[in-house]
Structures are given as C-alpha cells and as structure tokens.
Specification:
Length: 468
Amino acid sequence: MKFPDGFLWGGAVAANQCEGAYNEDGKGLSTQDVTPRGIKGPVTKEPTSDNMKLVGIDFYHRYKEDIKLFAEMGFKVFRTSIAWSRIFPNGDEKEPNEKGLQFYDDLFDELLKYGIEPLVTISHYETPLNLSVQYDGWINRDMISFYERYVRTIFKRFGGKVKYWLTFNEINSVLHEPFLSGGIYTDKSRLKKRDLYQAIHHELVASALATKIGHEMMPGCKIGCMILSMPIYALTSNPDDVIAAMKSDHMNTFFGDMHVRGQYPGYMKRYFRENNIQIQMEDGDEELLRDHTVDFVSFSYYMSICEAADRSVAQAGEGNLMGGVTNPYLKQSEWGWAIDPQGLRYVLNQFYDRWQKPLFIVENGLGAIDELVTQPDGTKTVLDDYRINYLRDHLIQVGEAIEDGVPVMGYTSWGCIDLVSASTAELKKRYGFIYVDRNDDGTGTLKRYKKKSFDWYKNVIESNGENL
C-alpha cells in the first residue's frame, strides 16, 4: 500500500468536546453547555455539573502537552474547531473577545512550532446559546450576518497561520439534530419542514459567503465543506428498495451538490414541490452559491446503513444516526454502529465520481470502552488491538480508493486523544491513541497515557501508510 507524497496524516477533535474552560476568559455559553446528555437531551436552561463538556479533557490548559504527543506520533495536520462563543460570547456583538482570539493564536503557534498544519472547522456543533434562544438559530436570516462578522474576524486574525478551513461540521446532520447542528431552538417535534429547509438555505448561503471571503482575504487558502457520509445500500435487489436507498441518499448528497455545483438539484426541487416547501431567497443568493464553490470536500465516515421500501421487514438500526435499517452482513460496535471498512472505499469513489473534487477524510474511528492496565515495567497503557484492527481495515480501503484513482488529501482519525462523545456526552466512549484519566462521574487525574495504538499510528505515519 502506497499513499501519495504529502498525504496529510493526523487527528481530529472539536473544541466543545475537549477544551473545557466553558466560562473562562470571556467565553459565552454555547448550545453544548446546556446539553449534558448529548443528542438525546434534555436541553437545560443553565449549565449543570453533570455536563462532561464543561471540563472536557481540559485541553484549554493542557494543549501544549497534547500537541507534543501529536508531534511525537508524527502528525502532519491537526483538525480542531474554534468555539464561536469564545470569539463572540453572545454571537451578536460588534467586537470580538480578545482573550478568545489570543487562545487560538497560541494554539496555532504551538502546532506550527512542530510543523503541524491546523485544519480548522469554523462552526462545529456549538452555536452561541444566545443566537439559538433569541434568534432560533439558522432559521433566522440574521445568522448570516453574525456568521460573516465571525468569519471575517478569524480570517483576519489567523489567515497567516491556517491554510485549511471547513465552514460547517457535518452540515447535513441538521436534518436529524437541528439543535445540535443548526442551533434551532424550536423542538424538532414541532419544527416544520419549510422552516428546517429555510435554515439549511441560510447555512448554505453563509458557507458560500465564507468561501468567497476566505479566497479574497487569504489567497492560496483551501476551503472545504464537511459532510456526515453514510453509504446507503438497498436492503435487497428489489427495485423498490433500490429507489428507497436512492431517495434517502439524495438527502445527504444534496449538501455536497450545493457546495460543489452551486445550485439546487432537480431531485430537491421535486421534494420541495411535493412537500409544499418554498425557499425564500434574497437577491444575490443564487449567484453567491453558484460562483463560490468549495476547493475540496471533507467528510466523516463511521458506518453504512441499509434502506428498504418496507421498513417493517427489517430491524431499525438503534445506533444509526440517520435512520435506515440494520445490515445483516455487518458486525456492530459497542454503540451499535455498523463496522464497514469497504463502505469507506465505496463512498470515496461515489463522492469523487459525483463531484470531481479532492477529498479529505476528517473523521473516522472506533468508539470503545478501554481498560487502562499496568505493564510489567510499571507503565500504564491500553491494549487496544481492536482499535488498531479497525483503523487498519479502513486505511487499507482508503489505499484501495487511491488505487482506484481517487485524490485523497489526508486522513485525520477522530478523537486522536480521548474526548467527550458528541452523541452521548460520555467519556467512556473512547476513540483516542491517548488515554485521558477522566471518568463519567467527573473523577480522574486528567493524566495522559499512550495506548498501544499510539506507536502503531506513529509507524503508519512514518512509513506513509506502507506499514499498516
């Protein structure tokens, strides 16, 4: 297996899942600070002590120690996000919070000191809470101007340090988790489809606007979209199942079509007609979407799902984030996520065939319960061969896709250091090469320990993927 020269190996985290320090140095509250149980709710009025994200893994104070470990593994790139409410605490201020800007200045300087490229997500599941409560998040068109002010601020401040940017994390997840993804305060049980798709339109316009501004302010930068990828297979060869899978897949590929092709596809226009949805556009929206498409497409990949015209014939996938039914041919993780390495090769080919843009795998990994053990020499570690096997199997399929002719820019393993889960707000669901001593009851020393996978991934990077 040979990966391209210059392949960007690294790891990924999100600010709200690792930083902690939720109320330090002028940071305002975000939607994450009031969701102590993750996507399963409830949303609280104020932060509560049982919310693991308020402390995270204390990356805010320990990032130098962690980046040194990333450098030891040989990272070429590190994906993180900027907490919007660190820069604009309420989201609608005129002037930014200097202490928040300084933190990210220091963070990016530390990465560059080791030759690690920052890959920065502008908005990663943490809308300033005020924008959610007072404006109902992206349903309100005013969000575009708030986002624009935020974007111009961080591009001006960090443009000389950050080359790779992503506009929104897993933008298509707003279909299923509107509060988490879009800061939409209206409960999803009462949210009308027309309001949801109007919010999506606002996000898409804001993404195109950020791409336009970035190219103007930072010549040579690369700006991408970020999609939650989930290959959808027909449960059987019955044409009804095939069409059901196609329709379901359209709901995801629509977001990439908009970012790459810059116009609403015919299948979505039909969906809007049949569901009595009228997108309210303002002058310039269509031109902005058309003329400011992304440089690359990035995506997360954890699982595939199946779809059937008659869902009663199959078991619904409890762990499936985006619906569908369980694939009887695949094993599942401890959290019910189907393990499908070949699905990653499939989606890489599907996306490149469709969009003809460079691709970047910015999330992939195995959430599992790890056991810290003491070795004969007294050092502590996790013998996570299951994680090594999972990642190896997926990276082999990345290599196959590269052999297929797909241009893959890089690979950042999700949760390269243990962090708080976005879906469940647990820390026991661990992804990292580095174990963090913190438990779901809040106990622990926060000390870091290298897992067995740490040295394995280091060797993979050193050999540019030859030693999988």
